[in-house]
Amino acid sequence: MHYLQQHGIHVYLTDAIARMNEERPANATQYLHDYLDAVASGSNVLHRDFSYIQATPRNRLAFAAQLGKLLASSPEEAVKAADCFHLVELLGNGFPFEVVKRAAEVTEYVMGLREPRPASEPGVPLPKTSLVLFFRICFYYMEFMAVSEPCLVAAFEEHYKTEADRPVASHYSLNELQSIKHRYLALLNSDIAKLPVG
Length: 198
Fold this sequence. Notes:
The protein is mainly alpha-helical.
């Protein structure tokens, strides 16, 4: 049973049977074949509810890939989080803005665009490839990111404070990244130790 759960098979079979029962296709075997083909290609997540999209790691990665394809079709090099979210809404139903917002915030911190803005002020345009990369990470590790994001942000903020006399760079040296990583892990371990057990 663990093997089936690990690969999300129970999610797909349960969903396929429920949809088959609802749609009553003439050829049930072909319907199941087409459903599994869609899972294999990643198109199974299109226009589905968030509960289904986030149900398996494969679905999460497939949705991020679909978003990447949609953004790649745009001639713009950069996109704001709000505009990215509108595209997410076109791909799936009930997707929380928090995932896109978190991806945009992490992208901003990594790029050094860290100045706080009023909540009413729209975000800055971010490179599409970077935003999609961090969207994929934030969505795939959504539950982990909810715990770890404040630690990551704090680690970058601490780095910026110690390097206040230096201009912000778009790339970090290996020493800088190691310093940020060590601070991040220390903060994360501290926060994890505070979580209730069981």
